[in-house]
Amino acid sequence: MKKNFYFWSVAIVGLIIDQLTKVWTILTFENVNDTIPIWEGVFHFTYVQNTGAAFSFFSGGAFWLRWLSLFVSLVLIVYGLWEKLPNPEQWGYGLILAGAFGNGIDRFIFGYVVDFFDFRLINFPVFNIADVCINIGIVFLIYGMFQEN
Prior knowledge:
This protein is of the alpha+beta class and 149 residues long. The chain has helices at residues 5-28, 62-82, 87-109, 129-145, and strands at 35-39, 43-50, 113-119. The protein contains 4 helices and 3 strands; from the N terminus they run H-E-E-H-H-E-H. The two termini are 22 Å apart.
């Protein structure tokens, strides 16, 4: 873990936050599609069971997506163990690992992913912390591409 400290730290913290927020969602909402408006018509917490990929793409594909999540997670773990990564890549791959592993856990346990962030102002698909981690991780990787080695 010393080799890629940020990679492992970000992956573990991101995974823990993702799973805790999903447990909170399951315990807080009685039924799927129940919602708590934080800012009426703009932002709500809404309990959704997503059988697809990020932002509900490939809806109904939970079976093969669980294996894709596992594969991506294992590849990133091996990569983090073998390679010494520059800091932007550590953050990027660590966040992507947190997201892939977090949503993968849901797919294996429930057969769907628990989503709850609901931006209604722009009619955006409901999403979760794992989705946020993956997207921010991609931003870090793009940033890292433009850094001098």
